[in-house]
Request: fold
Amino acid sequence: MYQALYRKYRPQNFDDVVGQEHITETLKQEIASGRVGHAYLFTGSRGTGKTTCSKIIAKAVNCPNQHDGNPCGVCDVCKGIDDGSVLDVTEIDAASNNGVDNIRQLREEANFTPAVAKYRVYIIDETHMLSVGAFNALLKIMEEPPEHVIFILATTEVHKIPATILSRCQRFDFRRISPQVIAERVKYVCSQEQIEIDEDAAQLIARLAEGGMRDALSLLDVCRSNARGGDDEPEHITLSHVRTSAGLAVSDSLFTIADAVLKQDIPAILKEIDAMYANSIDFEKMCVQLISHYRGLMMAKALKSPADFVPGLAQDTEALTEQASRYSMAQILYSLTVLQDTLSRMNKTSQTRTELEMAVIKLTNPSLDRSVDAILARLSRLENQLKNGVIPVAAAPAKQKEAVQTVSAPKVAAESPAAAAPVETAPPSKKEVEAFPEWPKVLQALLHSNTALHGALVNTAAYRYRDIVLIDCDDPFFLEMIRTNEYAKKSIHQALIDGSGRDWRIGPFKKDQYQTAKKDDPMEDILNKAQDLGVDISIEN
Reply:
């Protein structure tokens, strides 16, 4: 019967374990010196060596011929532990044996001395799956364990282990194995199995393993099946075999989609997705790859040397750096947010292709965002456009034609900041404007709703021209906010309603287009009337 590669090449001693030297060296010294703990806790992501090290400990503490903390691997005890014939070493799956009765049975067995080995070793895998009652039962025997018992707890979710259990264990955190180490191990296994493998194929396997050696060797098994040649042809694994086995899109597709997003070329994106569908690409995996690609763009944008943070082929890293130069960080972060939301929805539907198509179309046009805040902002922008006359008017009275402002249809569709900004009608000659007496009340209302904007408008004046309030403020901060910030515009409109009792169109006061109306001085009227009546009036300073 064929034996899977991850089982066939499972390390048999601490020296064979790769990527966890900080743990294996400590365990070797403990066992060699005879200072063996009664309870160990191994935590880390999948495929990093937790169960493997647990079995090596079980052999090492019971091996009569152990050398420098390593088991010999050839004695009856070592062979018996490997094939499961030595019953003094028990491996328990806590996912299916998580009840209090299972732990009570363990406690009863633990009191008996070992039959063959020196220690009874209990390896409890996925310990976090134990029930509360089971943890309490386990705690009792871990407080005062028999001298011949060793507990080894393995878990991927250490935060679910009670603190009372943690405090009684020696804890070892298994790190994710680096892609370079995994790639070297993959090439070693291939050399032992008489398999030819390209360097870029080994690197991609290591990258897809995400730090787990078992995942890498399992993927290598699948690639080996796809690469199997004829009777006289050697097995040769290429980059294409790895991509096909893992159900991945080619790297060029990711760059093509990212380029099309920048160009807002929706047909090109949909064509690429259709080609993936024809090749039976898993769209959920495709979404994960796009997230990884945009993460690479983020790293390339934020760092001068992203190679250490973006594991992959050198040519891919160079291409990421070039593409990132054409993206803004805001675009990258928005893309990551959309794709992360899409991935979470893919888990709840079978229409993964539709979800991915919706996501990439949304990336090309952020205004299509379906969130409530985005819809309200777009409605507010549309209302401002209608108030400011940015929609072409088909017919208007002759007297009003000079005041009608028309904007071409393409600018409205683009929803550019300039089109969305409040504007005022600008006649060719200067128009007289009147003072806006309610402006102090408007500023007072603005103080409570938008402090930053109020600070920019302190000591400013405002004028009224027809149904427009013109704000005399040269502060660049205000001018920028009034052009691009929807919240600022909404705050001013609400303050105008609170201060004057009605809403107005707003815009900046431009001295080259408007002039203040000259009003007669009331005192001069009184003096003129007094002179007409013959009344002698003298003004003393």
